[in-house]
Amino acid sequence: MSEQRERTFVMVKPDAFQRGLVGEIIGRFEDRGLKLVGAKVTRLSQKQAEDHYGEHEDKPFFDDLVEFITSGPVVPMVWEGEDATRQVRQMIGATDPAEAAPGTIRGDYAVDLGRNVVHAADHEDEGANEREIALFFDDDELVEYDFHESTWLYD
Ligand code: IDP
């Protein structure tokens, strides 16, 4: 298998940060065998939030969404692995936690659509990862390294 695997953008939202779920959420991806190549604690500016959720700017919930996502610290991250975008979307579960299966992050830790603990790039939107990673990380903030688990994770 090639060493350069797919990179995907994930972000712990302010509700999960305040509820002490950062470690739990990171642990889910570690346990799955994904490789963490970038992470930071930050607070989104109004502009960053509006850019990040630009596709929703005409929706009635847009202002609330921007207010919420800028309301406290978040943890943007980049995870790497085979088919990482689709895998991560499966792991976070449906957008509405009421529809998210138990065992998914939203299905286990959230009850409300507007407080669904985690964001991940949409696997059906081809440019999503590149766009979202660029909004939060410079190239030199993403670390290249040998992942010792690879031998035991991939055939
Ligand atoms: P995603 O986060 O699963 O990719 P999107 O459709 O991109 O889902 O929506 C972005 C975020 O906007 C959701 O995670 C959710 O917090 C919020 N959201 C989506 N639809 C609604 C709605 O109908 N009312 C309130 N908030 C919503």
TrEMBL record:
Subcellular compartments: Cytoplasm
Superkingdom: Archaea
Pfam families: NDK
Record has Metal-binding as a keyword: yes
Gene Ontology molecular-function annotations: ATP binding; metal ion binding; nucleoside diphosphate kinase activity
CDD domains reported in the protein's UniProt record: NDPk_I
Cofactors (names): Mg(2+)
Gene Ontology annotations of biological process type: CTP biosynthetic process; GTP biosynthetic process; UTP biosynthetic process
EC main group: transferase
Record SUPFAM superfamilies: Nucleoside diphosphate kinase, NDK (SSF54919)
GO CC annotation, single: cytoplasm
Subcellular location, principal: cytoplasm
UniProt binding sites for ATP: 13, 61, 89, 95, 106, 116
Keywords: ATP-binding, Cytoplasm, Kinase, Magnesium, Metal-binding, Nucleotide metabolism, Nucleotide-binding, Phosphoprotein, Transferase
Domain (Nucleoside diphosphate kinase-like) ranges: 5-144
Substrates-to-products reaction catalysed: a 2'-deoxyribonucleoside 5'-diphosphate + ATP = a 2'-deoxyribonucleoside 5'-triphosphate + ADP; a ribonucleoside 5'-diphosphate + ATP = a ribonucleoside 5'-triphosphate + ADP
Entry similarity comment: Belongs to the NDK family.
UniProt cross-references to PANTHER family, sorted A to Z: NUCLEOSIDE DIPHOSPHATE KINASE (PTHR11349)
Chain's role: Major role in the synthesis of nucleoside triphosphates other than ATP. The ATP gamma phosphate is transferred to the NDP beta phosphate via a ping-pong mechanism, using a phosphorylated active-site intermediate.
NCBIfam families: PRK00668.1
Stored HAMAP family: NDP_kinase
Protein name: Nucleoside diphosphate kinase
Species name: Natranaeroarchaeum aerophilus
Gene this protein is translated from: ndk
